[in-house]
Amino acid sequence: MPVSPDPHTNGAPSFDILVVDDDEPIRSALLALFEDAGYMATGAPDAAKALNVLHERQIPYVVVLDHLLPMFDGDALIRAIRTEPGLAVRTRVVYLTAVAHALPTNVVQLLHDQSIPVVHKPFDTEDLLAVVERVGSELLTQAHEASQGAGGGGW
Question: How does pLDDT run across 15-31, given as a tens digit for each residue?
């Protein structure tokens, strides 16, 4: 399965980044940030379009997900990903929010239960890149270990 080359590992298999934010200027700025860092990045303005992207390409993704979205919020996308084993195994989330102090208790619990890091807006771009790299590395390590235990099947 093709995956994006990782600039940090000399072309070794890596992950793509999906930015889900309804604010077009923020989404565009994040896409530029990740592309400048050498990642393949795709944007989606809402959770429904994000699910379409995740279903279209069967590759590992780190989803950089805004909390407040039209139709349904970021936590609903997390729940949708987790209910589909094929998505859950190859997807990790980094949660962006400007309202971390006002997140509903059920969202805080979900983020805690799923070990999802929360990045507060406004954020330092280097800090965000570091969080995405850490989450992506954990995703690839877990997938590698799972494929070794299952006879090397991969994604």
Answer: 999 999 999 999 999 99
Q: Name the token pair of 101.
A: 């102090």
In degrees to the nearest 10, what's the CA dihedral of 102, 103, 109, 111? Answer: -130
Beta bridge partners of 120: 97
CA atoms within 13 A of residue 93's CA, in its CB half-sphere:
30
pLDDT-derived band at 149, boundaries 50, 70, 90:
low
Q: Do the Cβ atoms of 36 and 24 come closer than 8 Å? A: no
Are the C-beta atoms of 151 and 54 separated by less than 8 Å? no
Tokens for 108? 């805080």
Beta-bridge partners for 155:
none
Kindly state the percentage of the chain with pLDDT values over 90. 74
What is the H or E stretch that residue 95 is in? strand 91-97
Q: How far is CA 98 from CA 65, 101, 118, 121, in A?
A: 12, 8, 10, 5
